Amino acid sequence: MTLGPWLEMWVGALLTLMILSFLYRDNPFYRFAEHLFVGVSAAYWMVEAFWTTLIPNLFGKLYPPMVAFVLPALAKNPPQISRIIPLLFGVLLLLRLVPRFAHWSRMAMALAIGFSAGTNLVRYLESDFTSQIGQSIRPLVVTQPGFSLGGTFSALVVVLGTLSGLVYFFFSREHKGAFGRVSRFGIYVLMVSFGAAFGYTVMARISLLTGRMEILGRWITHGFQFPG
Amino acid sequence: MSPAGGSLFDRIGRVDRRWIYVAIALAVIIPLMAKLTFPVITTPIVQNIFDKLDSLPEGSRVILTADFGPSTVPENMPMIQAVLRHALHKKLKVYLLTLWATGIPQLDLLEKNVLAADFPDRVAGTDWVNLGYKAGNQGVINSAFSDFPGAFPVDSKGHDVRTLPIMAGIKRLADFNLIVGIGSGFPGVKEWIQFGGDPAHVPVAAGVTAVEAPLLYPYYPRQLLGLMGGLQGAAEYEAALVKRYPEYQSRSEEAIKRMGPQTVAHLVIIAFIVLGNIAFFAGGEFKGRKRA
Q1: I need a surface site. Which of B30, B132, B183, B257 has the fewest CB within 10 A?
Q2: Which positions ≥6 away from B241 have C-beta within 8 Å?
Q3: Is a pLDDT exceeding 90 seen at residue B10?
């Protein structure tokens, strides 16, 4: 093993132990690792966004020769003057840092919010609303390609579960009598779904623990052999 | 630590949570050291992804996204490695990209562990391309929907994508045959369905962390052709791959091996839940509350 991966393994193992130490109780090692993680993450995302998005997608298109020192492949492309608009809005956003001109940033913010709200509304409406309604409308008895008991049961669960779940969230009428019983069934459906989600969460956490244990195991077996 | 006294059930109910952590740690460490594995059967929801990839004709274009960071590598990496091996074996054209800055090192690992190790004959820029990371979340997908090369002007090595043979004929997202989203949150598979697959009418398959899997089931099977949920989903895909192509057995059983500790840990957790409930209902506190 070379020096680079060896150091990487030590840093990873020690930070893992620092984080796991919280399971015993809060301590300065845990806090150090936590703060280091937050700081490094913020810096990492900012630097990557600059070099992988702003440089090629904005400056590399606005004035390609400007990025020749890092992306020579783009240097000969014709400039796209229209990119001055996102640049201008980007500068307006940064004016938030100058109290005297901070109000100018609202223009850029308004554009960003308006565009996001508009596109998200359409896509959510299409993919999460109308398509989901379509998915819920299905034959209760599955006969294609042949009768399927499992498929029929699944279809019944989806349809009855959806309807009873919706009834539970209908508050314009008192949950009594037949309506109340359907609503009660809706609660059970919700409980089952929460239980399934919790089960999946447990599975995820154990998977991550297994990954960390593998790293610690590799550190114990290889970390004390100094790189040659 | 818990105060002593009370019945056995009361003492169980007051057990220090740190003993439970120790038990879970042992439930993971011992099977890992013993290399304990269990048979894995591929369920239809995962088999659908395998069958779709297996049925695509040679040269079909597949977007493979690594929308995850190092924290979920144990779950996501086996999935993406198995899918990439499968796609390259079938001689599909693979477009690697990420909407997560922390996905960049994962793409580098894929290049090292799968592309260089198992498929050294495949040429970058012709058979596969690493388009790297783009900031902008679903905005990037929105942009790629109408102008894919505009959204990804350069690959991870800084080459102009318009000069790469693999990009010939690609103008928009609809020019792809399949999107396989491997992710662990936002932006991820949900956004690829909403802003990519649905409007462009490109089939989407997914591999996600177990935490995210329940949120994606409503999209299956019409908007999402298959779903690998957590480590189990990854193990199922590996099982399907190894069953059809046994030559990948030594390289593509990472998740299958991790399912041993996973299963034992689940059994221990179930035992704790049962024991905790027995202790609660048989303990003095519940009986006292009932009497009151």
Answers
A1: B30
A2: B50, B82, B85, B86, B248, B252
A3: no
Q: Please state, for a pLDDT cut of 70, what percent of chain A lies above it.
A: 100
Average pLDDT over residues B153-158: 93
Whether A77 contacts A64, CB under 8 Å:
yes
Sign of the torsion formed by the C-alpha atoms of B101, A203, A151 and B47:
positive
What angle do the packed helices B230-244 and B254-282 form, to 10 degrees?
140
* Of A17, A15, A1, residue with least CA distance to A223: A1
Q: Predicted ipTM?
A: 0.88
Task: Please state which architecture CATH assigns to domain B44-252.
Answer: 3-Layer(aba) Sandwich (3.40)
A207/B193 touch (CB, cutoff 8 Å), yes or no: no
Q: Considering only CB atoms, which chain A residues are within 8 Å of B232?
A: 203
User: Measured between CB atoms, does B115 come within 8 Å of chain A?
Assistant: no
* Nearest-neighbour CA in chain A from B282: distance (Å): 23
Residue ranges of the domains in chain A? Answer: 1-79, 84-137, 147-228
Best mutation site among A27, A206, A208, A215 for testing chain B: the one with the most B CBs within 10 Å? Answer: A206
Q: Is the CB of A154 inside 8 Å of chain B's CB atoms?
A: no
Tokens standing for residue A128:
């999460």
Residue that is written with structure tokens 């779950």 in the block: B75
Mean pLDDT over all residues of chain B?
A: 93
b/e map A42-58, b = 16+ CB within 10 Å? eeeeeebbeebbbbbbb
